[in-house]
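[stage:ingest] chain + small molecule (iron/sulfur cluster)
[stage:ingest] validated
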Amino acid sequence: MKEKTGIVDTLEERQPYITRKQEKGQAIPLACDNNSLAGAISQRACVYSGARVVLNPVTDAIHLVHGPIGCAGYTWDIRGAKSSGIETNRSSFSTDMKELDIVFGGEKKLSNAIDELMGLYCPPVIFVYSTCIVGIIGDDLEAICKNASKKHNIPVIPIKSEGFKGNKSDGYKAACDALKQLIKRPQETAEKKPEVNPEVRKPKINILGDFNVAGDVWLVKPLFEQMGIEVIVSLTGDSTTRSISGAAEADLNLVQCSGSMNYLAKWMQREYGIPYLSASFFGIEDISIALRKTAEYFDSEEMKKKAEEILETETNRIMPEISRVRERVKGKKAAIYMGGPAKALTLIKGFAELGMEVVIIGTQTGKKEDYEQISYSVRDGTVIVDDANPLELAELLVKQKADLMVAGVKERFIAYKLGVAFCDFNHDRVVEFEGFDGFVNFAREVDASINSPVWKAVRQRTLKPEAVESEREAVKGVNSGKPCVKQYKDISMGPDFLNTKPDAAVKSQA
Ligand code: SF4
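[stage:predict] done
[stage:export] tokens:
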């Protein structure tokens, strides 16, 4: 048997993607920003999925997936981005390509689908997503969309998101390219734009990279409005074709999800002269930084005073509840696995505010500089991983003795099967996590999951590496027909589990 060399027992080619925290100033020896290794069964989603996740919150758009029905499995329900008005985006549309379409081409089917949707919904925009098979058979999406656009007099935008043609980040880029087509050039050019003077006219901002999951952005916009700032649009949470079209009127872009939106922010800076700042609206420290640096940017004493007032009032209001939860969760160990690095970084601070320690941190789309920042922000011994697969995450949770995993829908069952508490930050949640009240919601969810009585009632590992080995031996024992109850004694389980016969015990862990 090959000797284990890495932090976890994984494919040799995956070892460079897993490392530990480095000292400040040291380059992080972590491979990242590459396409997923074939056969590694990455948790990362495909290009199409990356595009869909960014565009789906555009509430009045038709999102038409040109491909087999399986690709359309990504629906609004996977990530409930809320709308304050129209909810066309909650319906899923697909051309449902079948074998005959793949043999003879799906262009006619797509064209008919667009006509039918126009008749039914009269939308202001249609996004047409390309999928793997469309890339393979070569349907001319651009030509069909161009014709449909002329015929119906609305933008029908092809999203070049064939699943195989890169990674999730390429999907973000394809989505931003589509958004660029909806942003209209403002009346004044960048050179003519009047100087921002909060005493004379209300400064305007866009929030980039907030998808209004569970209504997040509705807890953030009022903070800026209280500071005398108008939020033109949040891209893309709770946005409409009309609000997006006015985005170039902004004086400043605040970028929260940098992985998905830095590309658009840079383009808006080049094209319209709109500068951008990174910001996070999660956790007391990061919200404070976001409000203060926005006020600083506009250089208004009035705005700075208002920001301080908001921070004092809101912090005093939520601290009693945060302190109560902190007493219940302090010292617990957290694992973070996010799509993008910005959320991972802000979560480190959020957990510190709850007195918790981060022992694993990973992302699907982080770049070298993101991981360097992550490395400086975590404690010694923390494992940092890029583009992980379920087996790596499972082994890390056990080895690092995590008490809680915070991640998205695909990671939930990895944690639950190990008896580890879980908090969904990205997809399935129904309460806001941003803003001051959102942080209280997050703290309560972390507490509820870590301290849930369910962990006393279900099979739970001791979270020792030996336990995993022991379990592997037990499975081998069953496969070879030998009794294996003895080995399971190393694993802390409920009495019912210990009383089951070996075969049943093994089946129950599947
Ligand atoms: S686009 Fe390709 S990889 Fe993505 S869901 Fe469809 S078939 Fe799967």
